[in-house]
Design brief:
- Residues 768-791 are annotated as: Disordered.
- The chain is 62% helix and 1% strand.
- It is mainly α.
- Among the domains are: 249-439, no CATH class; 636-769 and 784-825, no CATH class.
- The strands form 3 sheets. It has a two-stranded antiparallel ribbon. It has a two-stranded antiparallel sheet with strand order 3-4. The protein has a two-stranded antiparallel sheet with strand order 5-6.
- A hairpin with a 2-residue loop joins β1 and β2 (316-317).
Length: 827
């Protein structure tokens, strides 16, 4: 036994060991406290079980690795996945580092949140914009179809035999083109033929004017004369039409042509009046405008009117002669009248001389200022309306006076205002009312007066003339095209003529209405949707006269949509889909592989590219059978095989029914296969292999449904798609990975059909064995061969089950169950 001295030394040794820094924990508790703590821990540990015990062991393990478990648990509990991108809690103002870190993280989170919101908004906006655009296009297509096919537009008496373009017999037996439209279509065909042959391009206006002669309509003849006059202006090739038409040079030329047209028409009017009143006119045999005007005045002014000034010429007042000679556009006749006047006209001769020497019928600034001054001093208050009108025309002054005393017709008023249009820069001292610009005149005619003022719907040709001669081609064409269905063809072909001459202003977006305005264009300039106008016009007859419609679509070859596709190709694609006239329009593939040309080949375009584009559009619309024909026509074998595989795959296992979809596609596929094999044409390796394998599988299923089990089993064994022997299972599973989805989808049906064949053959052999007469032991000598055959069938069935189980392909659950059931029945 040790004494107290020994115990004291032991205690001191333990204390020294603690102070040396060893890993033993220092306990600052008395023995009683240590005992209570130990008792409490033991009691708690004894009560722990199940999941809690697992948690304790996990805490002990993590603690042994140096992890502060309570601290980590507290931090994990403070995290919230739902608040990942929410702003962090603010920190104390005195914690500078924490404040800066918090601000940085908050800014990053704010950027992430804002970007996420913007992405969602942009995606949603683009979705609705796309949906709205598609709906707008569909609505417009429906409206165009309804407008183009309205009953009042169809002449049911028009016979298709009147067509000089199309040599086919329509399915309906009738053409929707009347005689006027057919005559125009003939001229379009002639024009396109010259363009394609790269010969001398004819004047399209002259062609249409030539066709209008047979209509025996004075208004139509005058319309084409007017179009011919107004289109004879300089045009800048390759430049923007809106900018070109806004230049003073082109506008001055347009006004000169309009004045010339109105003046020539008035000469014809005077000549008709004089011819109808020869006795009163006493014209005589002297040619020229001057005697014609004198004869006209003898009818129009039988007596001297009060208020006429400055003498006479051959007993006729001088100023009416000067005005009507000016109205007829003959300045030489005015000079003759001035020289023959009974009185001196003073400074007017100087003004007239300056006016005649300028081809543009414009006075020099000095002479014009002098004439205006003289007008304000001596002529404005004159009682002679003809004198005032002559001064206002030559000096382009007093534009507010409409001279209603002598301009009692719309044509006279329009001619007077065109004469007063000025392109000279305004001087600082001049008033805006002293000059009339073409833009101001257009606004007055189109917006201030408008259709109601001119009674446009009662006399559409008159309002068309007002708009057209004031260089508002687009508004004039749009008005005439919507006013009367009988006038639509004239308006459309006027637009065609102007567009081919580069004088028509088109919108940047072809989805706009027929008539629209660009915010950047000066008022009242408008743009004509030429593409939509043509499509609306052809909608009437594209179903019955597809070749004629194709001629009009060719006029759109240089206009492209937002995706860069030519509207010629786009309209051709829609025409092919609507009419189904693939062979007529695009040609066909002969049995020897050669391509027979269609109507598209006459236009000298890249036929291959056109057919490819039409085929793509047809495929995108879900018309896969038609797409196969078009891709085959275009020589794209890979696409032909790809689509044919998709079409044949769902039909392989079906029973063959005459005139069914399966029968139709199978015959088409066989014809393609025979031609491709004869020409040694192939597509991609996978598609080519799948195509021929699908045809062979169709043969297998035809034999299976026809109960030709021996032939069917021989066929499937030769195709080497499935394993019927144990030594071929691995090879067949490996080969399966190389098959396309079109083949894999048919594997369940192939397995079931093969297992049914094996089971049927097994039952047939067993039934024959059971019913055959037996010997003393109940069997015949030949039963051994039948048993071997049955055993062979069972082995094939087991190999088939093994193959199905090893496939890296998920078969339907009922397929596996059915295979096992059939295999069990063979035992």
């Amino acid at each position: 036994m040790e004494g107290f001295g020994d115990l004291l030394r032991s205690a001191e040794q333990l204390t020294a060991d603690v102070d040396t820094g060893t890993e033993l924990p220092r306990i600052e508790q008395n023995l009683h406290q240590i005992m209570e703590t130990s008792q409490r821990l033991w009691t708690k540990t004894a009560q722990i079980g199940g999941q809690d015990e697992t948690d304790v062991k996990a805490l002990i393990l993590l603690g042994s690795k140096g992890l502060d478990v309570p601290h980590i648990s507290h931090r994990l509990e403070s995290l919230s996945t739902a608040k990942t991108f929410e702003p962090l809690e603010p920190v104390g103002d005195t914690d500078i580092q924490g404040f800066l870190r918090n601000e940085r993280e908050n800014n990053l989170l704010a950027v992430i949140e804002e970007t996420k919101q913007n992405s969602f908004q942009q995606a949603e906006q683009r979705f609705w914009d796309s949906l709205q655009s598609e709906w707008d296009q569909e609505k417009q297509r429906i409206l165009d179809t309804l407008i183009g096919s309205s009953p009042d537009l169809i002449d049911v008496t028009a016979d298709s035999s009147s067509s000089m373009i199309s040599d086919r017999v329509h399915m309906e037996g009738r053409s929707n083109l009347d005689n006027v439209e057919m005559a125009y279509a003939r001229q379009v065909y002639i024009y396109n033929d010259r363009v394609v042959s790269r010969g001398v391009r004819p004047n399209l206006v002259d062609l249409f004017k030539e066709a209008s002669v047979q209509f025996e309509n004075k208004n139509v003849t005058e319309l084409w004369t007017m179009v011919g006059e107004m289109s004879s202006v300089p045009a800048c090739e390759g430049s923007d039409v809106a900018d070109t038409r806004s230049t003073s040079r082109v506008q001055a030329s347009l006004i000169a042509q309009a004045r010339g047209f109105l003046e020539s028409c008035y000469v014809e009017y005077i000549r008709n009046i004089v011819s109808s009143n020869m006795r009163q006119a006493m014209l005589g045999g002297i040619p020229g405008t001057y005697p014609l005007v004198q004869a006209f005045l003898k009818i129009k002014l039988p007596v001297q009117l009060p208020g006429l000034e400055d003498g006479e010429v051959d007993n006729l007042p001088i100023w009416p002669i000067i005005y009507y000679c000016l109205r007829c556009g003959d300045l030489d006749a005015i000079a003759t009248a001035v020289r023959s006047a009974s009185q001196d006209l003073g400074e007017f001769e100087e003004f007239l001389q300056e006016y005649m020497e300028n081809e543009d019928r414009r006075l020099s600034p000095g002479i014009e200022t002098k004439l205006r001054l003289h007008y304000r001093r001596a002529v404005r208050n004159s009682s002679d309306p003809f004198k005032r009108a002559v001064y206002c025309i030559m000096g382009k002054c007093d534009i507010s006076d409409n001279h209603v005393e002598i301009c009692d017709k719309t044509e006279d008023y329009l001619w007077l205002k065109l004469c007063q249009v000025s392109f000279q820069d305004k001087t600082p001292s001049s008033s805006p009312s002293d000059h009339l610009s073409l833009q101001t005149l257009q606004i007055t005619l189109c917006e201030e007066y408008g259709e109601s003022h001119f009674s446009a719907h009662l006399n559409p040709f008159l309002y068309f003339k007002v708009l057209f001669l004031s260089a508002q081609f687009e508004a004039a064409i749009e008005f005439l095209s919507r006013t009367d269905s009988n006038l639509r063809s004239h308006a459309v072909h006027a637009a065609i003529a102007l567009h081919e001459l580069g004088l028509l202003i088109l919108p940047e977006n072809t989805q706009t209405p027929i008539l629209s305005r660009n915010p950047e264009d000066p008022s009242p300039m408008q743009r004509l949707n030429y593409t939509r106008l043509i499509i609306m016009y052809t909608a009437k007859f594209e179903a019955t006269d597809s070749r004629e419609a194709l001629q009009y679509y060719f006029l759109l070859r240089n206009i492209h949509d937002t995706h860069g596709k030519s509207y010629f190709v786009k309209c051709l694609s829609e025409l092919v889909v609507e009419t189904r006239e693939f062979e007529t329009l695009l040609g066909r593939r002969e049995a020897d592989g050669s391509r027979r040309q269609g109507a598209i080949d006459k236009f000298g375009v890249d036929t291959q590219n056109v057919i490819e584009t039409v085929a793509d559009d047809t495929e995108n619309k879900g018309l896969f059978e038609e797409a196969v024909k078009l891709y085959d026509l275009g020589g794209n074998v890979s696409k032909v095989l790809e689509i044919m595989n998709r079409l044949l795959s769902p039909l392989v296992s079906m029973a063959m029914t005459p005139q069914s979809k399966r029968d139709r596609l199978r015959r088409q596929a066989v014809a393609l296969a025979e031609r491709y094999q004869m020409q040694a044409v192939t597509g991609s390796r996978a598609n080519t292999r799948s195509f021929y394998l699908l045809l062979d599988l169709m043969t297998f299923f035809d034999q299976y449904h026809a109960q030709e089990h021996d032939q069917a089993l021989e066929t499937i064994n030769r195709l080497q798609v499935i394993a019927l022997t144990r030594d071929t299972v691995d090879d067949r599973v490996t080969s399966f990975k190389q098959y396309t989805d079109e083949i894999r989808r048919n594997l369940p049906d192939i397995l079931l059909a093969t297992m049914n064949i094996l089971c049927s053959k097994y039952r047939s052999i067993r039934s024959n064995t059971t019913q055959s007469p037996r010997g003393r032991l109940g069997s015949r000598p030949e039963d051994g061969g039948k048993e071997r055959h049955q055993s062979s069938l069972r082995m094939q069935a087991k190999s088939l089950i093994t193959f199905a189980g090893m496939l890296p392909y998920r078969l339907p659950g009922d397929t596996n169950a059915r295979l096992v059931q059939l295999e069990v029945l063979m035992n």
